[in-house]
Amino acid sequence: MLHLSSTTDPSWAALAARDTDALLLDHAHCEKKAASTAVALLFRYPDREELAGPLSALAREELEHFERVTALLRRRGIRRGRRAAPPYAARLVEIVRKGEPGRLLDTLVCMAFIEARSCERMGILAATLPDAELRAFYADLLESEARHHATYLDLARATGLYADEEIRLRVAQVAAHEASLLAGPPAGPRLHD
Ligand SMILES: [Fe+2]
Ligand SMILES: [Fe+2]
What we know:
Elements: H1 11-18, H2 20-44, H3 49-75, H4 88-92, H5 102-128, H6 132-158, H7 164-181
Helix pairs in contact: 2-3, 3-6, 5-6, 5-7
The structure holds fe (ii) ion (2 copies).
C-alpha cells in the first residue's frame, strides 16, 4: 500500500498530457536515476548481504524500464540531451540523517517514497493520457513500480536494525516532508516535481 500523505494536484494530469515529450524525457531520467541509486547502495553497504539480491534485481528492472522509455523516445523522434535534475529528490533526501544506522533507514524510506509517488502518478497517466500507446505503457509499468516502494520498506525490515515502531515513525515523518515538497501548483510535466 502507498504511504503518501497527499494526492497529486488534479491539474498535473493536464500538464503532463500537454507535453508528453517532456514527460518522457523526465521519465527516462527517473528510471536511470532509480537504477543508479540502487547500485550506489550496493557499493555503500557491501557487508549487508540481505540488501544485495533485491537491490541488484531492482536496478536491473529500472534499467529495463529506462531502455523501454528510450526506445519510445527514439521511435517518436524525441531528442535526448543533458538536462538539469529536477529538485524533488535532492530536497527529499535532505531529511536523511548523517550517521548510521539512521542514514540507511532514512535512505530506504526516501526511496520508498520516490517509488510510491511515481507509482501514484503513473496510475494517473495510465487513466487519463489521451495518447493510447502511452496509457498502455504506463499501465504496464505501474505493476512493477507498485512493487518497488514495498521492496524498499521490506529491505529496511530485513536489516534487523530497526524496530517496527521506529520504521513507522520515520515513514510518517518522510511522508509529511514529501508532501510539503509537492504543495502548491505542480511545476511541470514531471513524474515528481
Ligand atoms: Fe522504474
Ligand atoms: Fe521503480
